[in-house]
Every structure is written in structure tokens, then in C-alpha cells.
């Protein structure tokens, strides 16, 4: 049976929306990690068969097939094509899936999976703004017949989850505080240093606030009156890029590459699009069943902290050990550059497995439309 290996994984620091990276063109952010990936792995870039890049707001500086423009902006061979994909927040995790599936199918040997999002330059929802400005509906008649005219948003979905699982504002804030604490420790101990390619003078993730307190969080206004959600328990609007190189066994031998992890399972599943953010729960169950593993077999989990109720409900339903979940903090502290986050989390996961000596890692995140990707890897 064919195998697919991760042989390189690198990311930029994750910047804030008004930080030093906000003025860097998305193609240059992508070019930076692509060039760094080639240099760190030592692979012949002409041997890469495709570049698959996740990006959510594909408009303005992020339009015109960002994967292709980023690769060319890096000065890499013109013979290598690129394609840009959108599975909402899971876009670059899906890029990893597509890259690995190309290798596992036997039709490709070397594929780059990557992701870029500059939310400081291209605001979230910019690609939907045209419809709003023109007075056009975002959803058609079929959707309206099925789900009515109710609000469909990640914010409402997160609040619905908090209500369903009985989480109070204080519960969410305690989770958020721990995310910042863990990220602060990781920064202090230099846990991210090996995975980060500094850019524009930025060497560390910009959003971490290890000095925040429950008292500070309590002073914030809720996103809406009566809600448990505040900005403190949501992922940060961010800027960043990440890139992962997937190789076949033959490519590993041919190019003298060093496997970091083996792809074990690739799953994607849909759930209620109104709740929107619950799909990681059934998707994880599906992936573990197909992999023949239990949640206790997983040594490190990276689950995107879009909002605190997402990882909290996931861990509660799966019975996961929270010490193994986002051990170095998550998006509440480190940020969530939408289309880049899948590649960023995989980079974190691969390096944390190496640092900790763990065997199995699992990555999942909630996505627009009520979807989730789950990737299981094994450290080599």
C-alpha cells in the first residue's frame, strides 16, 4: 500500500491584524514559507508536482490563484503549477488532504500543501461584500427553503454551542486564560523557534498575552447582549502563512528526504450548518474509527480554537485528556489566519510530536457550512 510522508513543515509567526505583518502582501507571505520549505528540506523545487494553497478571502491581493503567484514570487520554477482552494477555516488542512491523497493514489510523488491569509490587508468576509453591496442574497432559494431566513454565522453558532453544553461566560474565560498561559510558556521556552521562519523583522507570534487575567476578561462587553461570548474567548484576527511538503516513499529515497511523520488517516465530515462549529466531534469519531485508534492513543491534538466552546465541547464529548489538547496554546492566544491555519496547526503538531516524543497526532477544526477536517499522523 502506498504511503505519504510529511518531510517538511514551516510557518511564519502569526501576526495581529495591525501588527508588523499586516503590510506584507499575501503573495509574499506565501512566497516566504514556500522558499523556506524548499531550503529546509533541500528538495529540488522543479520536482514538486503541484502547490495547493488554502485561502478564504480570495479577493483583491488574495485573488488570481494565490498559490501560483506565491510560488512565482518566491523565484521558484515556472513549470510548477498551483491551485488555491477554499474550505473556509479548514482550507489549508484540506490542501494537506489533497496533497496526501495525490501521493497515496500513486499519481504524484511530491506535493506542497500551504495556506495564506492576511486579515489585516483583506478583511474577513471581503469576498462576500460584493453580494452585500449589490443587494444580492448570499444564499439561494434552496437554502432558504431548507433553513429559513435565520442568521447563519460563526458567532451565533458558538453561542448556540455554549448554550447547548451549558457553558457560562466564566467557563469560557477560564479556558481562554489557559490558552494564553500555555502559549506564553511555549514562547518563553522557545518551543516554536524551530518551526518559524521570521519575516519583516517578526520572530515570534504577536498575539499572545500571558499577562491577561480573568479580571481583565470580565471587563469586556459580550459580542451581543445576553451572550456568553466576548472577544476574549474567540480566535484573534490574524496574518500568517504555512507550508508542508508531502512525499511518497519513492520520493523520500530519490531526493534524500527525512520523513517527520506518516499520514495515517484523512477524514472530512459535515454537521449542522446552523450550529456550524460542531462537526469536529463526529468527524473525529469517524477518523479514529477508520484509523483503528481510540482518543487515548492520541498523544497531541491540535484543534482550532475558533471559539472556546469548540474545543471544550469536543473534549467533553470525546473524553479527551485536556493536557494533550493544544498543549502550546491555540488560536485564542496565537491567532487564526483563516486559510493559513490548517498548515500552521500541522506545522505545530509535527514539531510538538518531535519535541515531546509522542507517537500519534490529531488535527481538526470547525469550518463554515458546518464541516470539519480531521488528520491523523504518526511520528516517524
Automatic annotation (TrEMBL):
Ranges where the Thiolase C-terminal domain occurs: 257-379
Protein name stated in the entry: Acetyl-CoA C-acetyltransferase
Protein source organism: Nocardiopsis composta
EC class: transferase
Family stated for the protein in its record: Belongs to the thiolase-like superfamily. Thiolase family.
Pfam families noted in UniProt: Thiolase_C (PF02803), Thiolase_N (PF00108)
Domain Thiolase N-terminal: from-to ranges: 5-249
An example Gene Ontology molecular-function term: acetyl-CoA C-acetyltransferase activity
EC number: 2.3.1.9
Keyword check for Electron transport: no
Residues annotated as catalytic: 89 (acyl-thioester intermediate), 336 (proton acceptor), 366 (proton acceptor)
UniProt entry tagged with the keyword Acyltransferase: yes
Phylogenetic placement of the source organism: Bacteria, Bacillati, Actinomycetota, Actinomycetes, Streptosporangiales
Domain of life: Bacteria
Keyword annotations of the record: Acyltransferase, Transferase
Amino acid at each position: 500500500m502506498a504511503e505519504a510522508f510529511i518531510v517538511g513543515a514551516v510557518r511564519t509567526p502569526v501576526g495581529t491584524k495591525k501588527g508588523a505583518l499586516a503590510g506584507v502582501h499575501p503573495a509574499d507571505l506565501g512566497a516566504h514559507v514556500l522558499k523556506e520549505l524548499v531550503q529546509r528540506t533541500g528538495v529540488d523545487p522543479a520536482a514538486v508536482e503541484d502547490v495547493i494553497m488554502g485561502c478564504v478571502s480570495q479577493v483583491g491581493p488574495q485573488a488570481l490563484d494565490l498559490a501560483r503567484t506565491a510560488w512565482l514570487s518566491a523565484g521558484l520554477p515556472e513549470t510548477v503549477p498551483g491551485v488555491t482552494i477554499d474550505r473556509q477555516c479548514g482550507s489549508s488542512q484540506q490542501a494537506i488532504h489533497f496533497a496526501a491523497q495525490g501521493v497515496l493514489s500513486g499519481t504524484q510523488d511530491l506535493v506542497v500543501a500551504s495556506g495564506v491569509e492576511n486579515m489585516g490587508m483583506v478583511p474577513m468576509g471581503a469576498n462576500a461584500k460584493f453580494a452585500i453591496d449589490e443587494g444580492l442574497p448570499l444564499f439561494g432559494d434552496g437554502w432558504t427553503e431548507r433553513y429559513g431566513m435565520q442568521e447563519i454565522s460563526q458567532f451565533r453558532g458558538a453561542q448556540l454551542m455554549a448554550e447547548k453544553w451549558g457553558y457560562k461566560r466564566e467557563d469560557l474565560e477560564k479556558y481562554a486564560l489557559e490558552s494564553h498561559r500555555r502559549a506564553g510558556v511555549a514562547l518563553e521556552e522557545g518551543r516554536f523557534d524551530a518551526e518559524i521562519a521570521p519575516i519583516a523583522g517578526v520572530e515570534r507570534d504577536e498575539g499572545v498575552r500571558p499577562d491577561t487575567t480573568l479580571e481583565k476578561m470580565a471587563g469586556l462587553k459580550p459580542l451581543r447582549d445576553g451572550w456568553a461570548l466576548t472577544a476574549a474567548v474567540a480566535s484573534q484576527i490574524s496574518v500568517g502563512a504555512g507550508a508542508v511538503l508531502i512525499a511518497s516513499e519513492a520520493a523520500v529515497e530519490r531526493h534524500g528526504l527525512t520523513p517527520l511523520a506518516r499520514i495515517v488517516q484523512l477524514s472530512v465530515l459535515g454537521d449542522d450548518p446552523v450550529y456550524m462549529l460542531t462537526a469536529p466531534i463526529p468527524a473525529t469519531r469517524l477518523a479514529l474509527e477508520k484509523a483503528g485508534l481510540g482518543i487515548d492513543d492520541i498523544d497531541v491534538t491540535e484543534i482550532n480554537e475558533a471559539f472556546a466552546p469548540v474545543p471544550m465541547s469536543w473534549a467533553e464529548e470525546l473524553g479527551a485528556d485536556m493536557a494533550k489538547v493544544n498543549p502550546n496554546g491555540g488560536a485564542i492566544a496565537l491567532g487564526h489566519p483563516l486559510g493559513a491555519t490548517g498548515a500552521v496547526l500541522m506545522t505545530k503538531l509535527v514539531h510538538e510530536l518531535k519535541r515531546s516524543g509522542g507517537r500519534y497526532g490529531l488535527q481538526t477544526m470547525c469550518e463554515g457550512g458546518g464541516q470539519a477536517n480531521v488528520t491523523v499522523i504518526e511520528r516517524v
